[in-house]
Amino acid sequence: MRLNKNFDLLKDNYLFAEVENRVAAYKAAHPEKDIIKLGIGDVTLPLCSVVVDAGMRAAHEMGEKETFHGYGPYRGYTFLTQAIVAYYVERGIKIKESEVFVSDGAKSDIGNFLDLFDEDCVVSVPDPVYPVYVDTNLMQGRKIVYANATRENDFLPLPDESVKADLIYICSPNNPTGAVYDRERLKKWVDYARACDAVILFDAAYEYFVSDPELPRSIYEIPGADRCAVEFCSLSKTAGFTGTRCGYCIVPHKLGKLNGLWLRRQSTKFNGVSYIVQRMAEAVFSPEGRAQIAGNVAVYKKNAALISDTLKEMGVYHTGGVNSPYIWLHCGTDSWAFFDRLLADANVVGTPGAGFGKNGEGFFRLTAFNDYEHTQEAMRRLKKIL
Amino acid sequence: MRLNKNFDLLKDNYLFAEVENRVAAYKAAHPEKDIIKLGIGDVTLPLCSVVVDAGMRAAHEMGEKETFHGYGPYRGYTFLTQAIVAYYVERGIKIKESEVFVSDGAKSDIGNFLDLFDEDCVVSVPDPVYPVYVDTNLMQGRKIVYANATRENDFLPLPDESVKADLIYICSPNNPTGAVYDRERLKKWVDYARACDAVILFDAAYEYFVSDPELPRSIYEIPGADRCAVEFCSLSKTAGFTGTRCGYCIVPHKLGKLNGLWLRRQSTKFNGVSYIVQRMAEAVFSPEGRAQIAGNVAVYKKNAALISDTLKEMGVYHTGGVNSPYIWLHCGTDSWAFFDRLLADANVVGTPGAGFGKNGEGFFRLTAFNDYEHTQEAMRRLKKIL
């Protein structure tokens, strides 16, 4: 059997699997403990009613001959791609419908998009980083250079002009640090990418958490980005779709062959997203959908602010928590040891910074995806042990 | 921009896109014509009521905090993987739940599974072939050797012992030919694969159309197959899920590292299938679901039999049509020319054999996925022009 040897380069355990294993072991030993999870970035609030109604309606349609849907269009149904175009237009960004591709989520897209590139590409990823960017490239044997995100640069690294990258990952608002690029700093990446003829893979999965109008929610707010950047977005955090599965990416025609190549890849290795799910996604973009998801995100933002304020009060350095659902705090020690301590002494689950890269050591990620009462209780416990 | 140059090896147009283009051009020129589509293999009957009900129920659950579902398990929900295990057990095949992986469809799985293999693998695919097997390998730069399927071998090629393959594609019931391997011939492939240490990628997407108990519906009916074969299956044709999107694959632990590698690939580049869709898939396997889908498939089988009987009556050589929704007929001429003639003179759409490989030239594929009345009318027109 001739296997892909690059898999040997991957670490044995996916970060969140290891977190889950440790929590499960603790739970088994202490079944009476009330554990609060501020670890994996999964949403907790249910889907909005307008989205649920759309899903029920679409399921019903699928049972009637006149309204049944078989294979859908490769880029996604027009009702959804049009809604996505409109969502950009209202933020002053012009994109064409044929630049939008609907998918089952940003994680799939970000991994699968790599099929379009040479395996000898040099890949720039931030450290700390969402592990998927690294692992998907290692699987294809690519060389990775790290852009160091540290306290010194506000966890917002800038390009290293001495390196010639071919692919550049940027996630803003960032996972795991919660840090958000301003336009000026993001422009440095766009200029660098254009100078290198590199492609930026911009992960905008958390754009909906940005409320400061001074901060960009799309890379296309930066002039020239439509000549060098692909943008990945998801309804997972915006509308609670982690278990419903819908995302999209924007591949501008100005990027040359990429749009056609991606269509070719997707039409060969993918058959589109469930009609029912696409109708649910469409409902997210309706005026009622917007109002309802804003309510949900406000809950998470209130949690994030509470965590951030608590840390401020305690004098703990951190990033995020304002325009992001993530809070990245300095834990001043071995971050897996801090994980174990927080789990054992406060029964609170977070994610150790070391799991996101070498610059994550000494840091720790908390997420806003719980309800307010549990977040309050977690903060009370945190104060007690720190 | 450093692109994957292997994409240059792909032909410009995906077969079905070209079919669609020609039909659209004909329609535009002749808007009054009543076109009957027996071309692309898309189902036409709506989802069964038990499946629709499950979808509506699951959508409703997603709107309630107590029953909301975020990220699901990487292999799929237990309620579904257990149902799939039971589906195999009742056919006398023992598989473990951890050998089942739920996905958004067999097309995604078949393409993505290649991530696990070395790019220097030698790949055996039949000719004619479902183009996805070829294109997904060309994208990764693999060398393809063709197993010639011809009238002489009933379109069921056997292994060529002089070739050492690493990956072997078998689709039975076959797309596009409708031919079905018997156990004896399938065993030759299993023995060959084991002798070569090759992996068989067995596409069982049409297994539900097999009613002859002498013909295998799973490769695991062949002794030793669990040491060399991965099986891909789909609810697209079984339960009309082409627009709902759910499939699964079986990766036996006896295949060594493959099960773990696939889990690693899927947990890194995929986030599972919508909870709602998995509940709908579960309903397919319920006793009521089985009864209802059997009713739908009976309709398609009746169509297939009608097409096959008509061709027999006319003395036209063909395969399929009995244990398969596809009918592969000898059209005795340039198959794209036959396509154009059938479209123009009978207003019937099929798929030219040449689109499936060199051995497809002179042959033509018709599908049973229409209603009985349209299939009858198409046969009347066929008789008139042939």
Q: What is the gist of this entry?
A:
With 386 residues, the first copy, chain A, is an alpha/beta fold.
Describe this protein's structure:
The structure is a homodimer of 386-residue chains. With 386 residues, the first copy, chain A, is of the alpha/beta class. Helices cover 39% and strands 14% of the residues of chain A. Chain A contains twelve helices and 13 strands. In chain A, the strands form three sheets. In chain A, strands 2-8-7-6-5-3-4 form a seven-stranded mixed β-sheet, with helices on both faces. In chain A, strands 9-10-13-12 form a four-stranded antiparallel β-sheet. Chain A has a two-stranded parallel ribbon with strand order 1-11. The longest helix of chain A has 28 residues, at 287-314. In chain A, 55% of the residues are buried. The model of chain A has no long low-confidence stretch (mean pLDDT 96). Chains A and B meet through helix 2, helix 4, helix 5, helix 8 and helix 9 of A and helix 2, helix 4, helix 5, helix 8 and helix 9 of B.
Order of helices and strands of chain A: HEHHEHEHEEHEEHEHHHEEHEEEH
Shape field of chain A? globular
Instruction: Tell me the fraction of residues in β-strands of chain A, as a range.
Output: 5-15%
- Low-confidence segments of chain A: none
Strand order of the largest sheet of chain A: 2-8-7-6-5-3-4
| Assembly classification | homodimer
Which bin fits the share of residues in helices of chain A? 25-40%
Q: Give the number of DSSP strands of chain A.
A: 13
How would you characterize the largest beta sheet of chain A? 7 strands, mixed
What do the pLDDT scores of chain A average to?
96
Radius of gyration of chain A: 21 Å
Per DSSP, the total helix count of chain A is 12
The class by helix and strand makeup of chain A works out as: alpha/beta
If interface size is counted as residues with C-beta under 8 Å from the partner's C-beta, which chains form the largest one? A-B, 80 and 80 residues
Q: What separation lies between the terminal Cα atoms of chain A?
A: 52 Å
